[in-house]
Amino acid sequence: MQRRTFLKQSLVGGLSLASGPMFFPRAEFPLVRITDGQHFHWFGYYDKWQIDPTGRYALGARVPFEGRTPEATDKLSIGLIDLKNQNRWTELGTSRAWGWQQGCMLQWIPGSREEVIWNDREGGAYVSRIVNIRTKKQRTLPKAIYALSPNGQFAVGTEFNRIQNLRPGYGYAGLPDPYQAEKAPEAIGLYKMDLKTGKHNLLISIAEMARTPHQGKDVRDNWHWFNHLLVSPDSQRVLFLHRWRPELTDRQRMAATGFVTRMVTAGTDGQDRYIADPSGFSSHFVWRDPGHIFVWTKPMGQENGFWLLKDKTQESEKIGAEAMLVNGHNTYVPHTNHEWVLNDTYPQTEQRLQTLYLYHIPSKRKVVLGAFHAPADYKGEWRCDLHPRCDQQGKRVFFDSTHEGLGRQMYCIDIERIVRG
Known about the structure:
Low-confidence stretches: 1-23
Number of strands: 28
Mean pLDDT: 92
Strand content: 35-45%
Strand order of the largest sheet: 1-28-27-26
């Protein structure tokens, strides 16, 4: 869909709800748009560092269209936004390996003030680019990345063409899955890559996990893939979702349901594996500390909700039972001793409002920062989740939204007085 047509439809939907409840953020939490509104902008996923360690620079992505699946020839522009210089945009490069939900895995390398990384396509492979924002020097690593270790030394990844084959919108266009005829390939799975040398090795194959029974049942006769990788805060363990679906049809692949999920942890050598959540319902998650995982799930014999799971045990504790009632993209606000949670919701009510909020675990206090209208055109693969993320200081929240009728743009809210008050 071209920009003019898409914006016209979105603006009509937006204006019709402009006087509705909570269309704009609450007045006590001023909202700043950090992108120009003349292009479509967003960051991507909620568990990556968008803001540099100094708090001055934000990363973002820009495209000239919305409302359709990216094609192999569609390029994404990667930019650096100077938050202290009128949000000035400086282009850093481009990518041909991206999707609407997670972008191109753009992020700052942990601990660095100068180096950023993102995924791209080169020849017949997905690769990753590391760029120094000051010297503009670029180097290319031979594999795409999914998540980085907090110590900044290595990345973990899985094959994005496999994801695209089995869950379109979370992988990349351009390269077919060479194992599309195999339900559980031995040759691919979870890999680890050194960020300096590019040396990489397979840690856990998809076939290995497929051979592991699920709740006592054999699940090998399904179509398997890995998704949503994250390294523990001490860089010693990796967490990932192992998913499978019984059928391989276009309808099944495009469905948001129809697959089973289990959450797995392992050492960063691929050993010491543990089914951290065998329920089949694991969704969004984040590590709290090296021994605990904060996840939306439905533990065995329990109810839906956000749960704190202790790794390598079946111990669990429900969090926010009275206030965090629906699934969202949950993280901890940095430097708050894991007391404050940042979260959002999918579009709710007839007004399709996405709520952005903070939750204080000790006091059970919920602070709604605002609710933002998502026009009906934003659905399925090209929906625009808020995907809220904090800066590294824990003072500001950044998120993607379509509520102004300008297509997807990026916004900021200062939360320092709330979490430090």
